[in-house]
Amino acid sequence: SLHPEVKWAQRVDKVYITVQLADSKNAKVDLTPEGVFTFSGSAGAADRQYELKLELFDKVNVEESKINVGVRSIFCVVQKAENGWWKRLLRAEGKPPHYVKVDWDKWVDEDEDDGNGELDLGGMDFSKFGGMGGDDAMDDIDESDDEEQEVSKPVEQEAGEASTEKKEAAPST
């Protein structure tokens, strides 16, 4: 099986993990309190199997962690068991695997994190860990995130929004 690319960033209380796998099917993500993060799923026309097991730097709070399965990626907000900056994502010392990269878009340096460094998650719909696997999870995908929509949807929305705006604008003139 192949490894999907993983991007990560952290705050003092949480770690953001993004599994970059477009159009993933049967995505299963698991997280243990000891900080073992596992992913499996298939993607692509050939339905190639992707798997991943990361031993995170420290213990995590599974109940408070959450996940969003999107069209292009699986995004996880992993709550640390104890607040504090991790030296690295993985428990093992040395160079991380080539498929694990820093997510510079979400990165904040330790001295810049004032506790208000909440990420703008753009209205992503999250489910709890443990509720993964099964078709129900796929029905919960949030469709308000423009990035993850099919091409036809924004056109319909824009047309709807435009007509709403005209109605609202009419009384005020």
Automatic annotation (TrEMBL):
Residues 163-173 have a biased composition (Basic and acidic residues). It comes from the Eukaryota. Residues 113-173 are annotated as: Disordered. Residues 136-149 have a biased composition (Acidic residues). PROSITE patterns: CS. Transmembrane segments: none annotated. It is found in: Cytoplasm; Nucleus. SUPFAM superfamilies: HSP20-like chaperones (SSF49764). The keyword Nucleus applies. GO terms for molecular function: Hsp90 protein binding; protein-folding chaperone binding. One of its GO terms (biological process) is response to heat. Acts as a co-chaperone for HSP90. Belongs to the p23/wos2 family. Interacts with HSP90 in an ATP-dependent manner. This is Co-chaperone protein p23. It comes from Cajanus cajan (Pigeon pea). The lineage of its organism: Eukaryota, Viridiplantae, Streptophyta, Embryophyta, Tracheophyta.
